[in-house]
Amino acid sequence: MSTLALGFTLTFVMITIALSKWQKLGLEKDIALGTIRGSLQLLFIGYVLHYVFKTENIALIGIIIAIMILIATHNAGKRGEGLQGIHWRVAASIAVTEVLTLTLMLGLGIIKPTTQFIIPISGMTIGSSMIVCGLFLNQMNREVASSKEEIEALLALGSTVRQAIQQALQRSVKASMIPTIDGMKTVGLVQLPGMMTGMIIAGANPVEAVRYQILILFAFTAAAAITSIILSMLSYKLWFTREMTLK
């Protein structure tokens, strides 16, 4: 894509800003800042990856993945504001998912052990896990608020904290996985995923692009389940006080 063509893509941003102003949504500033910030971040990572791909430095790969996890943790952790220690639990959930997913892919020979494969797939896995964490925390806050009387009644009857909150946990895990599962059901019919589309535009064989997309699809489904279940196991006590009553 030429620089001129890239510049013309700002037309879409202008349309979005115009619609926001017309409907008085008040999103003009956020859209403008998001456009500038997103563009600078992508340009920066583009140059970083260009350098990393040339060097194949293992330490740099580890640093980049660690930074991705930290940023994802910060973003998802905001959904659990007020829950002490939620950030390290989110970080642990995302990190374990990333390690398991990457280990399986490399160990089974699904992807090549090069930066060209490891970093993009790690980024997609971590990003997917971040979204799952945010959805889980949002849903758990709603579930605990709406089921407060039920949970307190179970505690009064002698249930453990885990037993009292189990139903809320299950519903939250399911809710956090719904976007991933819905994506599986409609992929190829309603949407052509980003990785597949990018490969096709770059000139790759569509069948080869589909194979890689299937890999990502299955990996994301497993990653969503692993992330949400680990986070539920690590965090459910945070909605209770030390005396085991709801906060």
Automatic annotation (TrEMBL):
Record-linked InterPro entries: UPF0014_fam
Membrane-spanning ranges: 58-76, 88-111, 117-137, 186-204, 210-234
Major location category of this protein: membrane
Domain of life: Bacteria
The entry's keywords: Membrane, Transmembrane, Transmembrane helix
A Pfam family assignment: UPF0014
Family note: Belongs to the UPF0014 family.
Family annotation (PANTHER family): PROTEIN ALUMINUM SENSITIVE 3 (PTHR30028:SF0), UPF0014 INNER MEMBRANE PROTEIN YBBM-RELATED (PTHR30028)
Full protein name: Iron export ABC transporter permease subunit FetB
UniProt organism field: Paenibacillus alba
Gene that specifies this protein: fetB
